[in-house]
Amino acid sequence: MSTVVLVAALVAAGLIAGLFYAYACSVLPGIGRGDDKTFVEAMRGINVAIVNPVFMLTFLGAPLLAGVAIFLNPGPRPWVIAGFACLVAMIVITAVVNIPLNNALESGGDDYAAVRANFEAVWVRWNVLRAVVSTAGFGCLVAAVLTRR
């Protein structure tokens, strides 16, 4: 059972790290090429679409499964603990920075230039950090799987 939980945490963490990586290197640079209205409306649409059961299961499931794996895994617990800590950091960044920015974007009205100016640079910077910490969490869980006794 401990191996199944650890591998499930690893897969979920990999999917989330890949999502934030894709945002950082393709989605945001791509929609960033558009005008202010296009950028704001695209991000508003993405923010609504991403809150779905599949995303939430993976986003919340990765740290939850890693936390459970700490207690089930008799092997290299320091790697699992480090992976869990990174994935919790990803959740905290999202809750403290990205979600409030998403909410401000949604309620920002139709002055697209101002809405974008208050959103884009900060959101992008913190998304890159989410990509880094979620990738670190994934890497730690990879190490945990590879060094299991």
UniProtKB/TrEMBL annotation:
What the entry lists under InterPro entries is as follows: Anthrone_oxy (IPR013901)
Keywords in alphabetical order: Membrane, Transmembrane, Transmembrane helix
Membrane-spanning residues where? 48-72, 79-101, 128-147
The taxonomy runs: Bacteria, Bacillati, Actinomycetota, Actinomycetes, Pseudonocardiales
Name of this protein: Uncharacterized membrane protein
